[in-house]
Amino acid sequence: MSELQRLTITPKTDPPKRAASQDPSPVSEIKRVKLSDGRLQPAAEPEGSLPFPEKPAVLEERNGQIEFRVMPLEVIGGITFREFRDRAFGEIVFFAVSSHQQVKGYGAHLMAHLKDYVKATSPVMRFLTYADNYATGYFLKQGFTKNITLEKSVWMGYIKDYQGGTLMQCSMMPHIRYLETTLAKIRSLSKSHVVVAPIDPLSIHAIRATGWSPDMDELARVPRRGPHFNELRRFLYQIQNHKQEWPFLNPVNRDEVPNYYNVITSPMDLSTVEERLEHDSYAASKNLVDDLKLIFSNCRQYNNATTVCTKCAVKLEKYMWTLIKEIPEWYELLEE
Ligand SMILES: CC(C)(COP(=O)(O)OP(=O)(O)OC[C@H]1O[C@@H](n2cnc3c(N)ncnc32)[C@H](O)[C@@H]1OP(=O)(O)O)[C@@H](O)C(=O)NCCC(=O)NCCS
């Protein structure tokens, strides 16, 4: 099994070293240690502290997760990877930077660090990852491509397959030190070393003329989506793409089924669930799952058990519970 290691950052003088690699894990084993949001649950107690040759920032890796902190010490992001040494590739399993710290360069920095680290410590020269469709632009900028040149036989069945994501590959160059390259690029473009006194934007006529106010800035910084949005969207997407979803896609038509709304007092359908999700109406996964359960119970209440609709409801509900079981954080939603 490829292993998840703990290592801490130590000064340059320490040579890199790492526990020897082992055979890649089958997917079932990966599932056992991977949480639904991509975080990894420790599969076993790590072997000990391992040094890393550079300390470009405050970075710490534990259990296969690299944490990246800025001062004052605050975890602002992390990346989790799994090596398949014998197959000379690695899977980026989870990667996120806090929403309030995104698009400041931390993601690029962390990726460069990961590339250098993996290159320095293993034979892995390629990464695969299922990129969230909103993040493919970021991955393209980090040298990833949707053109997968790795043979399917090398990776298929070894990495977890996601729906609603795009498989992307990155091939690393042996002679490039990514962190230096990134920092050199930043240094050549940046004026961050020039310290200027804070400027009040409203002292600039052109900014005042736009009608801008600090409140607008605050508003723009508020994340547009709740923290669980992506996970809920992915979950709903899977339900919506199931074969048996068709009876529940839209509200029941009053003209076609005149007495429906006399019988069913709390109607629900998948388009309404999607709309609620888009409007951030679900504070927790439970609320969305409750709406789905309502769809199924309404269906059973109105139709008898032998109808096509009820059969679809039974199958779709069963599929929903299968999906929920795959998400450890949602275990409390499981019913006896
Ligand atoms: C994807 C993610 C990790 C990027 O981290 P980040 O700190 O925002 O990235 P950076 O600031 O280093 O951006 C590097 C470059 O990518 C660009 N970029 C960042 N996010 C992007 C996005 N979603 N789409 C397109 N380009 C993006 C930046 O503008 C920047 O471009 P530049 O080099 O021309 O200036 C972060 O947006 C995130 O956590 N997203 C949510 C989780 C996620 O989607 N993770 C991906 C795993 S599927």
TrEMBL record:
Region (Disordered) location: 1-55
Polar residues bias locations: 1-11
GO terms of molecular function: histone H3 acetyltransferase activity
GO CC annotations, alphabetized: histone acetyltransferase complex; nucleus
SMART domains: BROMO
Stretches of the chain forming a coiled coil according to its record: none
Main location as per UniProt: nucleus
Protein name as catalogued: GCN5-related histone actyltransferase
Organism whose genome encodes this protein: Staphylotrichum tortipilum
Lineage, top ranks: Eukaryota, Fungi, Dikarya, Ascomycota, Pezizomycotina
